[in-house]
Design goal:
Radius of gyration: 22 Å
Distance between the termini: 37 Å
Helix content: over 70%
Number of domains: 2
CATH class of the largest domain: Mainly Alpha
Number of strands: 0
Order of helices and strands: HHHHHHHHHHHHHHHHHH
CATH architecture of the largest domain: Up-down Bundle
Structural class: mainly alpha
Shape: globular
Largest sheet: none
């Protein structure tokens, strides 16, 4: 038995665990701080402090950089096992920080696009090293708690940075948000150099050829591929939270009722508060709801079957998006975002469980490793589709309700697809 497992709770984790949790907090905080406003900054006119790009152009950027974040960890994980975690982190933080910093300086479409691709490459190489380190420094006694803390660190970063830093920096200049992210990720190089310790290497590392064989093996299973394609429909909706929902907020929403309630509360502690709900607070609501409710939701659905629970979650997400079509009243908008977030935290953990159920018994780890392809498809389609539909239905026809109705129908189609899959295609050995 290892020394770590003889202790319990938080004391069971070594220093390396807390080092990577700190890295995760600052990296995700920087990322979500930028993503909470990126789509708005890129389309705002230069007179308003933005870059004046077209929404379609922003859709192409988002449909390129976000899939990279989901795809690169496959390659990065194999390379990190071979060349070492510290070296991989060094490269990841340096490239990520450079990408953010160059974005803060760039004003042309091509330079901004290339700078954000650099950021995505750095973030894609960072992801598997952190989860890999946690897996190596925990055991069966504290692994669940360890990954729970990891998940909280992600959402805490996504909550605090957009809530506190982004509004302040935006007041100085939008480019300072990217400088903040460059500093937030670049400073982690110091933690990597002076504090992080290389965890024990696996006895055998996978050559890249074996990684590619694994991809082919999984992609040849049409049931698995179809399951991922169906589930990615829900993630087309999710990725609207970083694009079309933000544009809609800017174009249509009057958040005065929410501002009045928050400012009345803040008035108990400070004189004449002037808080305003803005684009970055969409991310804050999503992350805040997860921080507050994930443990409760997880305990409620702990023993419920995977597929029906997924369908309930996707149904809630669909209702949350559909609510946006009902009214432009501020609290209705907030309710839609909260209900969507509850749907997300209900559906996604059960999706991971369901992949474990439908995978061949001897290939469960392999299938779980590639289950994140939902994010590649969902973000790849979501960015371009959202921008195209927004320009047509909202900018062109002035009918935002139709936009949210179409996205709700994608959610309904996802639910129908899952029911049909479960009825006709679920592998017999797991039924």
């Amino acid at each position: 038995m290892s020394a770590t497992s003889q202790k319990s709770g938080f004391k069971s984790f070594p220093k390396n665990f807390w080092t990577v949790i700190t890295m995760e907090f600052f990296e995700r905080g920087s990322y979500y701080g930028v993503m909470s406003v990126l789509s708005v900054y890129l389309i705002l006119s230069p007179a308003e402090g933005g870059l004046g790009f077209s929404k379609e152009g922003v859709g192409i950027i988002k449909s390129t950089i976000t899939p990279l974040l989901y795809l690169l960890p496959i390659l990065a994980g194999a390379l990190a096992d071979r060349f070492g975690y510290r070296r991989t982190l060094m490269m990841a933080f340096a490239v990520m920080s450079m990408g953010y910093f160059l974005t803060s300086l760039s004003t042309s479409y091509s330079l901004v696009f290339m700078s954000l691709i650099l950021m995505a490459i750095g973030a894609g190489f960072f992801k598997p090293v952190i989860s890999g380190t946690i897996a190596r420094v925990t055991d069966e006694n504290n692994s669940t708690l360890g990954f729970g803390i990891f998940y909280w660190a992600i959402n805490l970063g996504a909550f605090i940075f957009p809530l506190i830093l982004v509004p302040y920096l935006k007041g100085i200049g939008w480019n300072y948000i990217f400088i903040m992210a460059a500093v937030g990720t670049g400073s982690m190089l110091l933690l990597n150099i002076f504090v992080y310790k290389e965890p024990p290497r696996p006895e055998s590392t996978k050559p890249l050829s074996e990684v590619l064989k694994g991809i082919l093996l999984v992609l040849k299973d049409y049931r698995f591929v179809l399951m991922i394609v169906i589930y990615s429909g829900f993630w087309i909706l999710y990725f609207q939270m970083f694009d079309t929902v933000l544009w809609y907020l800017k174009d249509y929403m009057d958040m005065t009722p929410v501002n009045n309630v928050i400012n009345r509360f803040l008035g108990l502690f400070t004189a004449n508060p002037s808080w305003k709900f803005d684009a970055e607070h969409v991310t804050v609501i999503n992350a805040g709801a997860i921080i507050l409710l994930q443990l409760l939701i997880s305990s409620l659905v702990k023993k419920t079957p995977a597929l029906p629970t997924m369908i309930v979650g996707i149904g809630l997400g669909t209702i949350g998006m559909g609510i946006l079509a009902i009214s432009t009243y501020a609290w209705v908008f907030v309710a839609g975002l909260v209900i969507f977030s509850i749907g997300e935290m209900t559906a996604h953990p059960k999706f991971i469980s369901y992949i474990g159920l439908i995978a061949p018994p001897d290939k469960k780890a392999l299938y779980l490793g590639y289950s994140f392809l939902y994010g590649v498809i969902g973000s790849g389609i979501g960015g371009i589709l959202g921008a195209t539909l927004y320009v047509h239905f909202v900018d062109g026809l002035g009918r935002p309700g139709l936009l949210w109705f179409i996205f709700s129908m994608i959610g309904v189609a996802t639910i129908i697809g899952l029911l049909l899959f479960n009825h006709y295609l679920k592998p017999k050995h797991n039924s």
